[in-house]
From TrEMBL:
Swiss-Prot/TrEMBL keywords: DNA integration, DNA recombination, DNA-binding
Protein name listed in UniProt: Recombinase family protein
Family: Belongs to the site-specific recombinase resolvase family.
Organism this protein belongs to: Mesorhizobium cantuariense
InterPro entries with a match to the protein in the record: Recombinase_CS (IPR006118), Resolv_N (IPR006119), Resolvase-like_N_sf (IPR036162), Resolvase_HTH_dom (IPR006120), SSR_resolvase (IPR050639)
SUPFAM superfamilies: Resolvase-like
Lineage of the species this protein comes from: Bacteria, Pseudomonadati, Pseudomonadota, Alphaproteobacteria, Hyphomicrobiales
Amino acid sequence: MADLAYIRVSSVGQSLEVQRDKMVAAGVEPKNLFEEKRSGLDTGRPELKACLRALRRGDTLIITRIDRLARSATDLLNIVKGLEKDGVALRVLDQQIDTSTPAGRAMLQMLAVFAEFETAIRSERQMDGIAKAKATGTKFGRKVKATPERAVEIVAMRADGKTVPEIMRATGLSKASVYRALGLVAAG
């Protein structure tokens, strides 16, 4: 029987150190740590898949919080059902849950519902913030390279007989940007 740990942060800029320290303090051997920097919404988390494949009957999967493991309550419960079927327990350090007990299983199911609710609320707040920013004139996405003035220059170059590749070299713009500029001026 072994303890295997899965730790995850959502972005490259975040550190796994806090979770790693908790696992070592909980007695997990460093060779049994599976760690990655990927969004919880990413279904293709290779380290999670490797961790789940490495677990054997009688082992325990340890995580720091339930949101580190699953992207939704349904996803969490599916993972837990798979673990139970394989004879593997789940231990959540921060919420002090251990699915080897009936109380631990009940608590995990309740926390999964709350975690999914919190994620939905966070998403709503993010969308509200984006809508507010758009309403106040904030522009999203990359800055337009072919400004209206530049588009007029591009049209003039084309009218003078320059080819699209020549215009691309002269302006430093991509083919798509040149054609977009030609279309904007023609449409306007």
